[in-house]
Amino acid sequence: MHYEVQEGFRMKNRMGSSEAVSKARGGGSREAIVEAAERLFLDRGFGAVTMDELAEAAGVARRTLYNQFASKEEIFREMLLRVSGQLETAFPPGIETRGEVEEVLRLVARMILGLHKNPEYLGFLRMVVADSRQFPWIAVEFAAVMEPQAERLVRYLAHLTAMGILDCRNPVLAAHQFMGMLNQLSLWPWMTGRERVPVPKEDIIEETIQMFLQHYRRPRLKRRRRDSTA
Q1: 75-229: what fold?
Q2: CATH topology classification for 2-70
């Protein structure tokens, strides 16, 4: 998968600047600039790319580039907005109400693993990890986009705990444990260049949910006693 994602971005690059020029002439200069930034930032890192190189790769004049974006930071933030859109698509409002806890966690898990197959998301994440040490603001702004999605899971687990269905004394910890089990098997092997565990996606999901609920689900007897004293 690591190879496939990088190849996906390189294939975009091999399409050449002629396509970018065509987009720019058709009024798509902003799109062409962002696409060029995706390729160059991924291949060389945020700090190693100049605005002049971005203009050349996008097939636009330097003036056109600066009319659209005043700096590389603005281009990065445009890319971040697109990642935010991908997250909103993956985690639409209201999924927390779609059935019992198993079904909701199943939906969340499938959406997380689906993101791990999105080359643009993975490429952007790789760039963030690589450049955050030199540019700490990148990590800060990326976290500001990611954290609201994690907070939704935290609120859901806290709600189920208040209802007596789960017993999450620390919903923040529980949410990150759930996501961490999925990331460990799906995301981090790709990030570190290792082969993923040869386990079907649905098995990963079901075993993760079973392990999570085995620890956090409140026993039914205790739930009944709690309800009777309410």
Answers
A1: Tetracycline Repressor; domain 2 (1.10.357)
A2: Arc Repressor Mutant, subunit A (1.10.10)
* Cβ contacts of 105 within 8 Å, gap of 6 or more: 178, 209, 212, 213
Q: How many helices (H) and strands (E) does the chain have?
A: 13, 0
Contact 69, 33 (CB under 8 A): yes
Q: How far is CA 65 from the centre of its chain?
A: 27
Closest residue by Cα to residue 124 from 108, 111, 141, 107: 141
- Please give the single-letter amino acid code of residue 29: S
Put simply, whether the predicted model's pTM sits higher than 0.85 gets the answer no
In angstroms, the Cα distances linking 106 to 62, 182, 229 are: 48, 11, 32
Residue-wise pLDDT for 26-74, tens only, equals 347 899 999 999 899 988 989 999 999 999 999 999 999 999 999 999 9
Q: Per the structure block, which two tokens stand in for 140?
A: 């800060």
Question: Cα(164)–Cα(7) distance, rounded to whole angstroms?
Answer: 48
Distance, in Å, from the CA atom of 3 to the CA atom of 147, rounded to the nearest integer, reads: 28
Alpha-carbon distance values, 40 to 21, 37, 59, 77, 174 (Å): 16, 5, 13, 15, 37
